[in-house]
Design goal:
The chain has one domain: Spore Coat Polysaccharide Biosynthesis Protein SpsA, Chain A, CATH 3.90.550.10. The protein contains 11 helices and 12 strands. Strand 1, helix 1 and strand 2 form a beta-alpha-beta unit. The chain is globular, with a radius of gyration of 18 Å. The model has no long low-confidence stretch (mean pLDDT 94). InterPro entries: Glyco_trans_2-like (IPR001173), Glycosyltransf_2 (IPR050834), Nucleotide-diphossugar_trans (IPR029044). This is Glycosyltransferase family 2 protein. Keywords: Transferase.
């Protein structure tokens, strides 16, 4: 069976990394390895991860550090370079993968040998009505988040064959100025090398919508990264402009994020932990 390595870059993620690891290690099919790459955290992220490893010795979680440079891209690259599985996957430390995520990724690659990279829907656990949000996210991601007729990989929910990563590794952009969307950059380099990507509806990740909670100018600047990344890679055809949709919806999404967050705080609801708890119980009961 195809083996899946998971890479989780971290920087000051003490609030969510434990939930992330719990989800990553309670899978219907276990990952080959789960590589947590810490990038000079100043909180207790590393100690949380190490304590988890010590108390769960059979879960194939590995903690390592990337200290040479600050940033997501060098940390991501460091982890993907260490991965030994047939498939290298990555998501963020505040992501909660669905309990059948590794199984879904494995089955997809086994049945689609011509596909090099996949991405899937995201369910935003800190927004109201997460299933509804997942539905609309899927609409945007399938219809607009694509280029050259293929879906762009999304950093919170992506996997690719290790040979594809090794092929693009020498050419992926370092983005020292931090103005790109690194997942789009990675996707465009895959397309340039002749690799194909596809959307996999079965690989579902729960992610934070905390970007929606930022101030308008910050959010607008973040949305500019879409076009900046494409401008740095001429010759690709954009199939949609998701940033335009998100900017139009920003006032509503920002209000929903803050109101829902306040409501959950009052009633002490841990939305991330609640997301897949009932699903995990059903899986283990069966």
């Amino acid at each position: 069976m195809t083996s899946v390595s998971i890479v989780i870059p971290t920087w000051n993620e003490s609030r969510r990394v434990l939930d992330c690891l719990r989800n990553a290690t309670t899978q219907t099919v276990q990952a080959h390895e789960i590589i947590v790459v810490d990038n000079n955290s100043t909180d207790n992220t590393r100690s949380i991860v190490q304590n988890f490893i010590d108390s769960h010795p059979g879960t194939n979680v590995v903690l390592t550090q990337q200290t040479a440079a600050q940033g997501l891209i060098p940390t991501r690259n460091f982890g993907l370079d260490l991965a030994t599985g047939d498939i290298v996957a990555r998501f963020d430390a505040d992501c909660m993968i669905k309990p059948n995520w590794v199984e879904a990724v494995t089955l997809f690659f086994d049945s689609h040998p011509h596909i090099a990279g996949i991405t899937g829907p995201v369910c935003y656990y800190d927004m109201p009505l997460p299933p509804v949000g997942q539905f609309f996210d899927g609409l945007v991601r399938e219809k607009q988040y694509s280029a050259d007729g293929m879906p762009l990989l999304f950093g919170s929910n992506m996997a690719m064959r290790r040979e594809a990563w090794e092929a693009i590794r020498p050419v992926v952009c370092d983005d020292v100025e931090d103005v790109f969307h690194e997942d789009i950059d990675c996707s465009l380099h895959l397309f340039e090398q002749g690799f194909k990507t596809q959307y996999c509806t079965a690989m579902v990740t729960g992610a934070s919508a905390r970007r929606m909670g930022t101030k308008h100018d910050s959010f607008k600047n973040y949305m500019k990264r879409f076009q900046t990344t494409f401008d740095a890679h001429p010759g690709h055809t954009r199939d949609g402009y998701p940033e335009r949709t998100l900017l139009r919806l920003y006032p509503l999404l920002n209000s929903m994020y803050h109101v829902y967050g306040a409501w959950c705080s009052i009633f002490k609801i841990d939305t991330a932990e609640r997301l897949w708890s009932s699903y995990r119980k059903r899986v283990h009961l069966n």
